[in-house]
Every structure is written in C-alpha cells, then in structure tokens.
Amino acid sequence: MPLPQRSPSYLQKIEDGHLNNSLGSPVQADVYFPRLIVPFCGHIKGGMRPGKKILVMGIVDLNPESFGISLTCGESEDPPADVAIELKAVFTDRQFVRNSCVAGEWGEEQSSIPYFPFIPDQPFRVEILCEHPRFRIFVDGHQLFDFYHRIETLSAIDTIKISGDLQLTKLG
User: Fold this and answer.
1) Which pLDDT value is given to residue 77?
2) What are the residues facing 46 on neighbouring strands?
3) What is the largest CA-CA distance in the chain?
4) What is the C-alpha radius of gyration for the chain, rounded to an integer number of angstroms?
5) With b meaning 16 or more CB within 10 Å and e meaning fewer, what string describes 72-111?
C-alpha cells in the first residue's frame, strides 16, 4: 500500500520576501518549498526589543539526538557572532539547555526545567518572548523558563539560526 501524500497545507510560500503559511494549491503560488530548510539562518527585521516574539514551529525527527535554536548578533563565523541565547534540546539527557556567548566567552549553562516538552516525531511550538530583563521561553503554550539577558543592546540581536534533528514548518 503506498504511503499517504501530505496535503499542501504544510508548504511555504514566498510573497514579497516574507514566509507565509499557504492553504492554497501549488498552482496559485509563485514559489513553494516543501519545508523550511535545516540548518536555517534568517534575519530578524529590526532586531529584538521588549515585546517582540519569535515563533518557531516544527516537527521533531523520528530518532532525534538534539536540535538548537540560537539568536545571534549577526551571522559572522570568524570572529564568531555574539550569541544572545542558544537553546538546545538534548534527547539522550531529556534536557533543554540554554547559554550565551559574549565576546567569544560562553557563560554559565542553565538546564533546570520542570519537564522535557519534546517528543520524537511530534510537532512543537517554541515562542521566545523578549522582555526588558529577560527572554521568556514557552513551549506549546506553557512557560518553561526565563533566561536573563547577557547582551545589553537588544536591537543588535538580529539573526536566528536553527539546526539539528527537526523539520521546520513555520517561523514568525
């Protein structure tokens, strides 16, 4: 028996340079992608500021080891860009660790969480809400932890990087 085909609702459409969900048929679109490509690197227009929220929706791979979401100050690799927050889901330890790297120095890693929210082969929704003193991290609508800013100039945080064992379905 053949595998069922996915409906076009998971496809992404580019309109005026912005990613949007599309429920239309591929005939109506200019450009479609089966999914956002991982590893992903994208620009955060205007950088971060209090009240701004980053949304990452995806599906965890069937046999994941880890995946990461980082907000950085640019894309530079050499010298490396400052990392305002790096979130890493580690499935072997059932940990969701976070850290930052300022001027080439990694800070103290934080790992305490009330529960591990990610399940192999299941969808998830991560929201990173920027507030004045901290980032608030929500997974599937539940606040999981806070991470206090180590980068003082929030507007310099202008890049999102996503890698690892997941498929991206939406960014916002």
Assistant:
1) 84
2) none
3) 57
4) 17
5) bbeeeeeeebbbbbbbbbbbeeebbbbbbbeeeeeeeeee
CATH number of the CATH domain containing 150: 2.60.120.200
**Is residue 79 situated within a structural domain?**
yes
d(CA 88, CA 67) in angstroms, rounded, equals 6
Strand intervals (E) in the chain? 12-15, 18-21, 32-33, 40-43, 53-60, 66-72, 83-90, 95-102, 105-106, 123-130, 134-139, 142-148, 159-164, 166-171
pLDDT at 49: 97
Please write the tens of the pLDDT for every residue from 106-143. Answer: 999 999 999 999 999 999 999 999 999 999 999 999 99
pLDDT of residue 91: 98
pTM: 0.80
- The total domain count for the chain is 1
Name residues whose C-beta falls within 8 Å of residue 70's C-beta, 6 or more positions apart in sequence: 83, 85, 86, 87, 160, 161, 162
Report yes or no on 70 lying in a domain: yes
Does residue 134 fall inside a structural domain?
A: yes
Residue 61 in this model has a pLDDT that exceeds 60: yes
Tokens of residue 130, six digits: 């920027």
